[in-house]
Amino acid sequence: MTLIKQILLALLALYASASLAQSAPTVAAASDLKFALEEIAANYKADKGQEVRLVFGSSGVLWQQVKNGAPFGLLMSADEAYIDDLYKNGLTIDQGSLYAIGRIALLQKKGGSIKLGTDKDGLIKAITQAKKIAIANPEHAPYGRAAKEYLTTIGVWDLAQPKLVFGENISQATMFALTGSADFAISALSLAISPQVQVQSTYVLIPDHLHKPLRQKMALIKNSSSSAKDFYQYLQESKSRQIMSRYGFTAL
């Protein structure tokens, strides 16, 4: 193979790689968004003919990965504070935008024997009966912090603490309850009402005045591709907002 052919092939490979990167932005998203965002991404592909790479995790872990240079085009956090911090450190294009307010719920596997109640008396009975209770890790997962705030506000944190098992994110905490590794979980409403989870479980919505609002914010990362910017705009269209609302997110 001549040198010219080698150079042409290398250029073609670079072009193909660049085209793929443009057409498939990587979106890092909080785990509570899993089912809602997968549906939006499927609509985006149908409407625009473009793929979206979705990476799910706890907001705190994804935030740290962005600070360490992870090649994400867009971060969708379950806590606006992580986006605010990235903006202050010059890592986002702008201050981003609030896209939803999340809710939490008590959730157990369908057929579970524990009666779930969100008031203090009902919660004490549920905790007393349970061997394991799953929440997301409050150290880096906003839904875990909301769960801790709820248990503390109700006055049962000390009672629950010895029985707590921590998921790395809210999806894992929910899975603990669905598989029987925990008797119940404090889950995200968006997961609890998804068809994939609802068929396996029952839930009780926790009143939102019992924890701080889960103000969820997204922002484009510096030097993000035009395709990431296009998907960011798509998320703010009425079609996408309707999906978010259907998954229990309060519209803003």
Q: What integer value in Å does the Rg equal?
A: 20 Å
Task: List segments where confidence is low: pLDDT < 50 over at least 5 consecutive residues.
Answer: 3-21
Number of helices: 12
DSSP strand tally:
10
Decide which structural class fits the backbone: alpha/beta
Q: Biggest sheet, open or closed, and with what strands and sense?
A: 5 strands, mixed
Sum up the overall morphology in one term.
globular
Question: Residue-averaged pLDDT, rounded?
Answer: 92
Order of helices and strands: HEHEHEHEEHEHHEHEHHEEHH
Proportion of helical residues: 40-55%
Distance between the termini: 59 Å
Beta-strand proportion: 15-25%
What would your notes on this structure say?
This protein is α/β, with parallel strands linked by helices. Helices cover 47% and strands 20% of the residues. It contains twelve helices and ten strands. The strands form two sheets. A five-stranded mixed sheet has the order 2-1-3-10-4, with helices on both faces. The chain has a five-stranded mixed sheet with strand order 7-6-8-5-9, with helices on both faces. Strand 1, helix 2 and strand 2 form a beta-alpha-beta unit. Helix 2 packs antiparallel against helix 12. The longest helix is centred in the first third of the chain and has 21 residues. The radius of gyration is 20 Å and the shape is globular. The N terminus is likely disordered.
SSE blueprint:
Blueprint: H1 3-23, E1 26-30, H2 34-48, E2 53-57, H3 59-67, E3 74-77, H4 80-88, E4 97-102, E5 104-109, H5 120-129, E6 133-136, H6 142-154, H7 157-160, E7 164-167, H8 170-179, E8 184-188, H9 189-192, H10 195-198, E9 201-205, E10 214-220, H11 226-235, H12 238-246
Parallel strand pairs: 1-2, 1-3, 6-7, 6-8
Antiparallel strand pairs: 3-10, 4-10, 5-8, 5-9
